[in-house]
Specification:
Blueprint lengths: L1 H24 L67 H4 L3 E3 L5 E10 L5 E8 L8 E6 L4 E3 L4 E3 L4 H6 L6 H14 L20
Parallel strand pairs: 1-6
Antiparallel strand pairs: 1-2, 2-3, 3-4, 5-6
Length: 208
């Protein structure tokens, strides 16, 4: 009786083991599938990690411009060609123009209006403004350079002629004035009629 009970118990255990093995075979490969572990992605941080190298930028870096070549300083003219200061015996043109002109008797006869220069650059004469009121109606008279005595310290020019003599002198004319007068005269003269032409109505009288 006892032997039969043991055999029955052993048979029940074998059946239980077989059922368990069969249940494991019906699962995927005999092993239970575990769901994949998902690691959450941390949010991006605005602050750069000092331990990480900076990311490469997509922006193209503009190369720095090349340094400009240094300008070579120019050499001045030679010392004998340069006037560094005005001497006591020299008068500038802007000082001479407008100076009052007196005669030997101390009479004011006009003012210096302009200066004439030759092709060599030397002064050849002056143009005086004589008469008129505040420059209106004044007459231009030219005198050679040797006829004037410039006195820079007194800011005046002295000549040996009176005002009446200057007013009696011919008017000074510039090259532009001469050319303008010549053009006006040419335009005023009518063209000459061709030879053989007759005036009147243009009809000719035939002779028998």
């Amino acid at each position: 009786m006892m032997k039969r009970l043991l055999m029955t118990t052993a048979a029940a255990s074998l059946l239980a083991l077989g059922a368990s093995a069969y249940a494991q075979d019906n699962t995927t490969g005999g092993q239970t599938q575990q769901p994949p572990v998902v690691t959450p992605t941390p949010p991006a941080s605005n602050s750069a990690d000092p331990s990480q190298p900076p990311a490469a930028s997509d922006t193209t870096t503009t190369p720095a411009p090349a340094p400009a070549a240094e300008a070579v300083p120019a050499n001045p003219p030679p010392s004998d060609a340069v006037i560094s200061a005005q001497s006591d015996g020299e008068v500038r043109a802007d000082q001479l123009i407008g100076m009052t002109v007196y005669n030997a008797e101390g009479e004011k006869v006009g003012t210096v209006h302009d200066i004439l220069l030759g092709k060599d650059g030397k002064a050849t004469g002056v143009v005086l403004s004589v008469g008129g009121v505040l420059g209106v109606g004044a007459k231009s008279v030219g005198l050679t350079w040797k006829e004037i005595d410039v006195k820079p310290d007194q800011q005046q020019v002295q000549i040996s002629y009176t005002k009446d003599q200057l007013e009696a002198a011919p008017d000074f004319k510039t090259t532009e004035q001469i050319n303008s007068e010549m053009n006006a005269q040419q335009q005023a003269v009518p063209p000459a009629a061709p030879a053989g032409s007759s005036g009147g109505t243009g009809t000719s009288t035939s002779q028998p």
